[in-house]
Amino acid sequence: MQLNGELNPNDPEFFELLTGSFRRLVGRALVPEDRGPEWLYGDAPFVVLAHNSAPDPVFVYANGAAQRRFGYSWSEFVKLQSRLSAGPSERGARQALLDAVTQNGFMTGYHGMRVTKSGSRFWMEDGIVWQLRNAEGQDFGQAATFSKWVEVPPSEIIDGAG
Protein backbone atom coordinates (compact mmCIF):
# COMPACT_ATOMS: atom_id res chain seq x y z
CA MET A 1 0.00 0.00 0.00
CA GLN A 2 1.40 3.37 -1.02
CA LEU A 3 0.40 6.22 1.29
CA ASN A 4 0.24 9.49 -0.57
CA GLY A 5 -2.17 12.30 -1.39
CA GLU A 6 -4.11 10.04 -3.76
CA LEU A 7 -5.72 8.11 -0.90
CA ASN A 8 -9.51 8.03 -0.76
CA PRO A 9 -10.53 8.93 2.83
CA ASN A 10 -13.04 6.06 2.82
CA ASP A 11 -10.62 3.47 1.45
CA PRO A 12 -11.37 0.15 3.19
CA GLU A 13 -7.76 -1.07 2.98
CA PHE A 14 -6.45 2.08 4.67
CA PHE A 15 -9.25 1.91 7.25
CA GLU A 16 -8.12 -1.62 8.13
CA LEU A 17 -4.48 -0.46 8.42
CA LEU A 18 -5.49 2.49 10.63
CA THR A 19 -7.92 0.67 12.90
CA GLY A 20 -6.15 -2.71 12.80
CA SER A 21 -2.80 -1.26 13.83
CA PHE A 22 -4.50 0.69 16.64
CA ARG A 23 -6.22 -2.47 17.89
CA ARG A 24 -3.04 -4.58 17.72
CA LEU A 25 -0.73 -1.98 19.31
CA VAL A 26 -2.96 -0.09 21.75
CA GLY A 27 -5.12 -3.09 22.65
CA ARG A 28 -8.56 -1.58 22.07
CA ALA A 29 -10.78 -0.47 19.22
CA LEU A 30 -10.38 2.97 17.63
CA VAL A 31 -13.98 2.96 16.38
CA PRO A 32 -17.12 1.12 17.51
CA GLU A 33 -17.48 -2.28 15.85
CA ASP A 34 -20.54 -1.24 13.86
CA ARG A 35 -18.81 1.83 12.33
CA GLY A 36 -16.78 1.99 9.14
CA PRO A 37 -14.55 4.36 7.19
CA GLU A 38 -17.39 6.73 6.25
CA TRP A 39 -18.28 7.24 9.92
CA LEU A 40 -14.64 7.77 10.94
CA TYR A 41 -14.08 10.30 8.17
CA GLY A 42 -17.36 12.20 8.37
CA ASP A 43 -18.97 11.73 11.77
CA ALA A 44 -16.42 10.69 14.39
CA PRO A 45 -16.34 13.20 17.27
CA PHE A 46 -12.56 12.86 17.67
CA VAL A 47 -9.56 13.88 15.57
CA VAL A 48 -7.65 11.25 13.59
CA LEU A 49 -4.58 12.14 11.53
CA ALA A 50 -2.01 9.99 9.76
CA HIS A 51 1.24 10.69 7.94
CA ASN A 52 3.37 8.51 5.72
CA SER A 53 6.90 7.24 6.38
CA ALA A 54 8.73 9.67 4.07
CA PRO A 55 11.86 11.38 5.49
CA ASP A 56 9.76 14.56 5.88
CA PRO A 57 6.35 12.90 6.39
CA VAL A 58 3.24 14.26 4.68
CA PHE A 59 -0.27 13.80 6.00
CA VAL A 60 -2.19 11.11 4.14
CA TYR A 61 -5.35 11.18 6.24
CA ALA A 62 -7.28 13.73 8.26
CA ASN A 63 -10.87 13.03 9.23
CA GLY A 64 -13.54 15.73 9.32
CA ALA A 65 -12.89 16.50 12.99
CA ALA A 66 -9.19 17.06 12.18
CA GLN A 67 -10.05 19.29 9.25
CA ARG A 68 -12.33 21.42 11.43
CA ARG A 69 -9.80 21.57 14.31
CA PHE A 70 -6.80 22.51 12.14
CA GLY A 71 -8.68 24.54 9.50
CA TYR A 72 -7.37 22.69 6.44
CA SER A 73 -9.47 21.02 3.74
CA TRP A 74 -8.75 17.41 2.71
CA SER A 75 -6.84 18.56 -0.38
CA GLU A 76 -4.71 20.95 1.71
CA PHE A 77 -4.05 18.40 4.46
CA VAL A 78 -2.78 15.66 2.14
CA LYS A 79 -0.10 18.02 0.77
CA LEU A 80 1.04 19.28 4.18
CA GLN A 81 4.24 18.10 5.87
CA SER A 82 3.11 16.85 9.27
CA ARG A 83 5.87 18.78 11.08
CA LEU A 84 3.96 21.96 10.18
CA SER A 85 1.16 20.91 12.55
CA ALA A 86 3.48 22.08 15.35
CA GLY A 87 5.04 25.51 15.69
CA PRO A 88 8.80 25.96 15.25
CA SER A 89 9.51 25.86 18.99
CA GLU A 90 7.46 22.65 19.45
CA ARG A 91 8.94 20.62 16.60
CA GLY A 92 11.80 19.15 18.63
CA ALA A 93 9.43 17.75 21.26
CA ARG A 94 7.12 16.48 18.51
CA GLN A 95 10.01 14.68 16.80
CA ALA A 96 11.10 13.12 20.11
CA LEU A 97 7.57 11.77 20.54
CA LEU A 98 7.54 10.31 17.01
CA ASP A 99 10.94 8.69 17.58
CA ALA A 100 9.64 7.10 20.81
CA VAL A 101 6.55 5.82 18.97
CA THR A 102 8.79 4.32 16.28
CA GLN A 103 10.66 2.42 19.00
CA ASN A 104 7.69 1.46 21.20
CA GLY A 105 4.81 1.13 18.73
CA PHE A 106 2.53 3.64 20.44
CA MET A 107 2.22 6.23 23.18
CA THR A 108 -0.82 7.27 25.20
CA GLY A 109 -1.50 10.36 27.28
CA TYR A 110 0.34 12.66 24.87
CA HIS A 111 0.11 16.43 25.47
CA GLY A 112 1.49 18.79 22.86
CA MET A 113 0.96 22.22 21.35
CA ARG A 114 -0.30 22.34 17.78
CA VAL A 115 -0.85 25.14 15.29
CA THR A 116 -3.81 25.65 12.95
CA LYS A 117 -3.82 26.95 9.39
CA SER A 118 -4.69 30.43 10.72
CA GLY A 119 -1.73 30.33 13.13
CA SER A 120 -3.76 29.95 16.32
CA ARG A 121 -2.40 27.44 18.85
CA PHE A 122 -3.97 24.78 21.01
CA TRP A 123 -2.82 22.11 23.42
CA MET A 124 -3.90 18.65 22.31
CA GLU A 125 -4.68 16.65 25.42
CA ASP A 126 -4.59 12.93 26.16
CA GLY A 127 -3.53 12.02 22.63
CA ILE A 128 -2.62 8.57 21.37
CA VAL A 129 0.05 8.20 18.68
CA TRP A 130 0.76 4.84 17.06
CA GLN A 131 2.62 3.19 14.21
CA LEU A 132 0.62 2.39 11.09
CA ARG A 133 1.78 -1.21 11.13
CA ASN A 134 0.11 -4.00 9.20
CA ALA A 135 -0.42 -7.53 10.52
CA GLU A 136 2.89 -8.61 8.95
CA GLY A 137 4.82 -5.97 10.92
CA GLN A 138 5.48 -3.55 8.05
CA ASP A 139 5.29 0.15 8.98
CA PHE A 140 3.62 2.68 6.69
CA GLY A 141 3.76 5.80 8.85
CA GLN A 142 2.18 7.01 12.07
CA ALA A 143 -1.25 8.15 13.21
CA ALA A 144 -2.66 10.17 16.09
CA THR A 145 -6.02 10.68 17.72
CA PHE A 146 -7.31 13.07 20.35
CA SER A 147 -10.65 14.46 21.44
CA LYS A 148 -9.65 17.12 23.95
CA TRP A 149 -7.83 20.39 23.45
CA VAL A 150 -7.35 23.78 25.08
CA GLU A 151 -6.99 26.99 23.07
CA VAL A 152 -3.82 29.01 23.69
CA PRO A 153 -4.33 32.80 23.85
CA PRO A 154 -2.03 34.68 21.43
CA SER A 155 -0.41 36.46 24.39
CA GLU A 156 0.95 33.08 25.63
CA ILE A 157 2.68 32.10 22.38
CA ILE A 158 6.44 32.17 22.96
CA ASP A 159 8.02 31.92 19.50
CA GLY A 160 5.90 34.70 18.01
CA ALA A 161 4.96 32.57 15.00
CA GLY A 162 1.26 32.78 15.86
Can you count the beta strands? 6
Largest sheet properties: 6 strands, antiparallel
**How big a fraction of the residues is strand?**
25-35%
Class per helix and strand makeup? alpha+beta
Distance, first to last CA: 36 Å
Helix count equals 5
Global morphology: globular
Q: Work out the radius of gyration.
A: 15 Å
In N-to-C order, the SSE pattern is HHEEHHHEEEE
Runs with pLDDT <50, length 5+? Answer: none
What does the average pLDDT come to?
91
**Helical residue percent band:** 25-40%
Explained architecture:
There is one protein chain. The chain is α+β, with helices and mostly antiparallel strands and 162 residues long. The protein contains 5 helices and 6 strands. Strands 1, 2, 3, 4, 5 and 6 form a 6-stranded antiparallel sheet that branches. A hairpin with a 6-residue loop joins strand 1 and strand 2. The longest helix has 15 residues, at 12-26. The protein is globular. The mean pLDDT is 91.
